[in-house]
Amino acid sequence: MRRTLVAVGCLAAIALVLVGLVRFAHPGRIEWLAPNAGNFHTLALKSDGSLWAWGQNSWGQLGDGTTIDRPSPTRVGTGNDWASVSAGGSHSLAIKKDGSLWAWGGNFCGQLGDGTTDYRLIPTPIGADEDWASVRAGDSHSLALKSDGSLWAWGQNSWGQLGGGTTVDRLIPTRVGTDNDWASMSLDGSHSLAIKKDGSLWGWGANSYGVLGDGTIATHLMPTRIGSDTDWASVSTGEFHTLALKTDGSLWVWGANFYGVLGDDPSSPHLRPTRLGSQSDWASLSAGDFHSLALKKDGSLWAWGRNRYGQLGLGTAVAGYAPTRVGNSLEWVNASGGNEHSVALQSDGTLWTWGLNLYGQLGGGTTTNRSLAVEIPATLP
pLDDT, tens digit, for every residue of 309-343? Predict the structure, then answer.
């Protein structure tokens, strides 16, 4: 998801960043859309195009003009034109419906992409381009796709996680290669992975515990192809582990297996993609720092890995070494794993959170940890 190794140049700043369902009744509903969990903050859109944020705000990552933590959803600006969001370690990124790119929060290594290393307490436009299609925020670097299929990166680059062949940080979006065939991407603090339109999988940056999946632990400064398969559908990477789906609905895992985060033998890392189970009914996935979430095609939600703060949503604090079903609902449509918390969306537009709540990142108005999913009403007082 977000955090891994920290560059010496950014160490001092970044070191500071540190089942049943319980429902709340509420009248009426504006539905939630597209929730995204960062290290200690959460972002989500509503169906009216408004953007909301909650949790840690030490560097302005909530975008409300302050550095005050918020335990309840707080509106970001007044616009109703937001299209997608991504929460990183201490920064946030979003795209508006007009295709413009915006950033705010911590900027230690230029991860906002505005040409500076200054914090931004409110959303700041990044350049003048209006052809951005998707964006992902890591700990201290960022990736984005344009509508022409080109891939761009900026921020920290100590391990080549920007894919440009160097270890020089970039303060503005910098193109990765010359190809126009990128389809999707995922990143963590020191590495990046992406899928091309032909279904091939690529990785670059630090490769601790084989998190890139190329059979080595060697750092790669340029995109390196992972195997020869051309049926990869999506990828999500955590601190030292990676999850990916193939087009046949099978789930694949690799990297370190701390706390059973790969869902199989907890003692063995995998340097190459390894199939998890024999099922071919997986629909989507999200890698938290040390836990994993995945949805099946029947709408069920499954979790495994570290569970110290209840981030698996199982009502316990016991690590899960194999995918375990979260509650009984078959209505899950989206899930996102953060550092130690989780957020998920149901088909009726209700939003649910659980896990660590030190900064109010669960959005329920408290800082109480939750080991079971709690609903966050879209219609707020």
Answer: 999 999 999 999 999 999 999 999 999 999 999 99
Question: How far, in Å, CA of 263 to CA of 37, rounded?
Answer: 21
The three-state secondary structure class of 14 is helix
pTM across the whole model: 0.93
Nearest alpha-carbon partner for 204 in 168, 155, 161, 167: 161
Residue 24 burial (10 A CB sphere; 0-12, 13-18, 19+): exposed
CA distance 325 to 328: 8
The whole-angstrom separation of Cα 374 and Cα 352 is: 5
What is d(CA 206, CA 190) in angstroms, rounded to the nearest whole number? 5
Fold of 8-376: Methylamine Dehydrogenase; Chain H (2.130.10)
**Any bridge partners for residue 303, and if so which?**
293, 324
Residue-wise pLDDT tens digits, 272-287: 999 999 999 999 999 9
Domain ranges of the chain: 8-376
